[in-house]
Automatic annotation (TrEMBL), chains A, B:
Gene3D superfamilies: Phosphate transport system protein phou homolog 2, domain 2. One of its GO terms (cellular component) is cytoplasm. This is Phosphate-specific transport system accessory protein PhoU. Its main location: cytoplasm. Plays a role in the regulation of phosphate uptake. Keywords: Cytoplasm, Phosphate transport, Transport. InterPro entries: PhoU, PhoU-like_sf, PhoU_dom. It is found in: Cytoplasm. Residues 24-110, 129-211 form the PhoU domain. The gene is phoU. Belongs to the PhoU family. It comes from the Bacteria. One of its GO terms (biological process) is negative regulation of phosphate metabolic process.
Length: 234, 234
């Protein structure tokens, strides 16, 4: 053993830090996969698979708990300013991923309600929207893994596309409801499912902003578009 | 000056901690007041007031930023385990309050869309639901101020009432939509507003759980009812 006590502490801090990063990446990939499965379940009308997705959400919650524990351990070492930023960003990113998992589980839950009605012709728009959100999640996780603020900024800019598709789907669903009162209940579920996915996009954006903060501190991000106009649809 | 250097550091840590608590209480009261104003705006159909509420949300966001900064300062002092729990709880509570503020602003935003249609007879249910959420927020802030896990546990148990009222309102709004296609767009806004308020209840519950965690650490909370069945309404 040639290592000095100081070296030992430093190395072990780095080890715990990379453990934390891996936990977050694992958590994020689980949430993205949950959303992918939930979209698939909507298309295939598969209640059994929906139940599995709902049950899987506990594993994501458990990982968030682990991240918090690991963050506490790191903070107890009396970190420096840059480390502290990493710790703070890790907590926030884990919380965002946890919400993404909740939304994915909620999409699965509502799909079982949809399956009690005859098949709807209008679930395709939801899949398109969901695939955009899955892509956003995967890309922001890569940006986090690589501590890449430019990639993070790109993900953030793409959120406008999700908002545009969401707004279109929202209007489309309203017209189906107006044409046929029997469509009201299933389309209401689809509206909420679409909203869940739009929110996943917002959480991917939050994660992107935390990757930026992680690397750049309080240096302001460039301004960006917001294109969700459904709050004021008339 | 009789104080020892050690006393000085300890006192100043306490001062920063109580500064943090006060910021969170201020932030929480702002969010509760925003929700109250938003409900009022729906009843009075007052677009100007709605715009003020939307603009006020920035102040809550700014306070969350301040809380994060203060938390970083405290963490840099190399806190002990109990302090760290307070720090972690403070971050999470501030994030929950920030979301409550967003939801309140969203209720205000959607109210301006409602005001473009003729007055609706069904906004009363929303007010009832909203008042429950305002009460939950105020009560959980008191529990936080007093570090009172029993009061926190009471708030958490009351969330089932919000879920019940929300589920009733959800079903009621669906029937209006089925009776009259012209009600579909405004009722969709009301559905989302109701969902926002139900989510505020969930955030009050999260805050309650963090007050518990603050005092009791990882000691498990008693189980509780969940009564939001709208995910599976058919």
């Amino acid at each position: 053993m040639n290592s000095q006590p100081h070296d030992h502490i430093v190395k072990s801090y780095d080890e715990e830090r990379s453990r934390l990063t891996n936990e977050i990446l694992r958590m994020g990939e689980m949430a993205a996969a949950q959303l992918e499965s939930a979209l698939d379940v909507v298309e295939r009308r598969d209640d059994k698979a929906a139940e599995r997705i709902i049950a899987n959400d506990d594993a994501i919650d458990a990982l968030e708990h682990e991240v918090s524990q690991d963050v506490m351990k790191l903070a107890l070492r009396g970190p420096m300013a840059r480390d502290l930023r990493e710790i703070l960003a890790a907590l926030r990113i884990a919380a965002d991923i946890e919400r993404v998992g909740d939304y994915a589980a909620n999409v699965a839950k509502r799909s079982t309600a949809l399956n009690l009605a005859p098949p709807l012709p209008y679930t395709r728009g939801l899949t398109v929207l969901g695939e955009l959100a899955v892509r956003q999640m995967r890309e922001v996780l890569v940006a986090f893994r690589d501590s890449d603020p430019v990639a993070a900024q790109r993900v953030r800019a793409q959120d406008a596309e999700i908002d545009t598709v969401y707004t279109g789907l929202f209007r489309e669903l309203l017209t189906y409801m107006m044409e046929d009162p029997r469509a009201i209940t299933p389309c209401t579920h689809l509206l909420f499912m679409a909203k869940n996915i739009e929110r996943i996009g917002d959480h991917a954006t939050n994660i992107a902003e935390n990757v930026w903060f992680l690397v750049k501190g309080d240096e302001p991000l460039p301004p960006r578009d917001k294109r969700d106009f459904t709050n004021t649809v008339t």
